[in-house]
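User: Show me an example of a complex going from sequences to structure tokens.

Assistant: Sure. Here are the input components:
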Amino acid sequence: MTEFFHVITADQFSELLVHFPRLSSEKMPLDASLSRILSEDVIAFEDLPEQARSTVDGYAVKAEDTFGASDSIPALLEVAEPVPMGTLPGYTLRPGQAAPIPTGGFLPQGADAVVMVEYTNRAEANSVEITRPVTLRTNVIDKGEDSKSGELLLPAGMRLRFQDIGYLAATGFPEVSVYRRPKVAILSSGDEVVSIERKPLPGQIRDANGHALAALVREAGAEPILFDIVPDDAEMLQEALETALSQSDVTAISGGSSVGTRDLMKGAVSNLHDTEILAHGIAIRPGKPTLLANSKGKAIFGLPGHPVSALIVAQVFLLPFLRFLQGADLGKGPPGHRVDVTLTASIHSTIGLEEYVRIGIEEKPDGKCEAHPIYGKSGMLSTMVQANGILVIPMTIEGFSKGDKVQAVRW
Amino acid sequence: MTEFFHVITADQFSELLVHFPRLSSEKMPLDASLSRILSEDVIAFEDLPEQARSTVDGYAVKAEDTFGASDSIPALLEVAEPVPMGTLPGYTLRPGQAAPIPTGGFLPQGADAVVMVEYTNRAEANSVEITRPVTLRTNVIDKGEDSKSGELLLPAGMRLRFQDIGYLAATGFPEVSVYRRPKVAILSSGDEVVSIERKPLPGQIRDANGHALAALVREAGAEPILFDIVPDDAEMLQEALETALSQSDVTAISGGSSVGTRDLMKGAVSNLHDTEILAHGIAIRPGKPTLLANSKGKAIFGLPGHPVSALIVAQVFLLPFLRFLQGADLGKGPPGHRVDVTLTASIHSTIGLEEYVRIGIEEKPDGKCEAHPIYGKSGMLSTMVQANGILVIPMTIEGFSKGDKVQAVRW
């Protein structure tokens, strides 16, 4: 029997995904928060710096004491007590004085600028010649100039980069609130599928999908839980799904791609308590038989059985969804870095299907990129390995011509 | 005293880095090897698939039995025993026979093509009408088509992506040899620097550099070891460096940016046993006072004290170096994703210095990107947070003009 799908478009599928609730947040030590997404605005609770600091080695002065200074007619100032590192100077600079100050030193009260050591002559122990004038705040980071008390330092929804971690360290946040990482249960089903530790008997194959999906889940910043392989048995499949759902935030199951095992999977999902099948069939290629269900607020992805189809659907929809649950926007299309490429061959597509074409991108000496399609049966993982990018052909067009300039995603 | 550097160019500095030895390799479970770099070629030890498999649900046939078949004159074939999943069919298909086969099923001996179920009519239990002809190998992945025994599956030096993990799972590699991840000792020095857990006293600052560097080291796939803050004391600094070297593959120290602490750092490094200072001063801005030493084959990076300078040097040189130690190529310039941008303001630079300009990149509705420079004192981390990219101005030019189209790196 051929099964007819009521397919929905890729956009409609994404629209379903975006209605799942984001995960809760958790407090994390700052050092463990790289690449996590802030769940709350971070507001400064003090000025940074708390007092004006010097950005150079030199002399802290009152700027007006240097006006008119030059090599031929230097300003002669009295040398005050040197500024120590690590404490505030305990005195107030008087007119006519200059205090030796190291880079990063806090200006004494009364000082409002710093003259670089290059523009000074320390002729005597207690006097210094200034040979260039400075204006107010020259070579100074002012109180609160890096951040002001009450200011928004980093907004909720921001993914933390290394420099943001540095900024949070500087402004006094040893912990931050970030979205939790999803736990993703990964189920592989199929009578023919065996663990990669075992030597497959004739007719068996190793569980490639499970391990590739676990890696993809890690790439999304989420935590994979790889379950034992489930045979093609309705009851065992349902039991495995129930266990998976109880231990995870998202369940991804890749089954056989035959109609029989597909029906089994759909049946097992339908039989789960409080579970609604939201979609079964997307107008995409590869990946049409993809299933999506909502089980008490948790998503179940039923991925196609062909490894290439499963991995492409996972990359285009599951990976961005896992980032969405962690606070990111759900972008359109496969995530990754966009590059402009010129096609070296025509690529045909089918109106009504959004197609994901594996491509080889080659960077030319002039920095421009060329791309060619990598064809191959969707059971062949080697084509995914040869490819270093993916090209989306929208459902409204019949393909691209050789020479077309298009945007692709680099793997 | 002003210190004069014998500066070297950025290219010369990279040339020094590339002479450090790569790290040794280690066996890793496949599931822990995402983003790691293979230290050995991976060679297939068997054919994948080991026998021809069907890519569709349908009937395994001898192709010649279907020649000339059509809707009006179908080929009538005898139905053989269905192909089971998970074992090899135990019989040989005879001329005139068709065996029901699921997607992924192994073809019986004697079959050489599969007819999709859509082009068949199972009129009776023991006969089936074929309404379309198939040619040899149609809907079949042939023995060894995905990979052949003895074939190079993945080359040494390749960074493992999720699909590569899947391919290695399919081809039977539960473990892989990858380059070790460097352990990176991170030392922050300075009398004024305090741990981020503490409330700084007046005149003190929190250790922003250490935590930002730890995050950057993680981003490079390496393992940071964050040491206690070292005061500005020659002996303590040297002792801390010795401990750091004994526990790590690379040491990164960020000291004060004043001449005094810079001299301390250089002195402490010079006093280490079997240690050669390879460079002190690079013709770059920011980051000129950077120091590089080789201590018994291990690199010591002496980073500038200004947080922005330290982080930019770390991003442009330390991060690619850490990836290089793990088997990657040492690319030119800051790592990251190149984007073409149009400048919305002119940016001046100094001949003889390679400049790294923080920029704000804005994507326009047409997909094109504009960029503007983000200026600010190099003590101000906020400028690194506002920026989402970096632009390199080569040492031979005086800057870029408003409207220039240039390539930048996105953060």
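The lines above are the inputs; the final block is the predicted structure for all two components together. Helices of chain B lie at 10-17, 162-170, 208-219, 234-247, 259-270, 307-325, 381-386.
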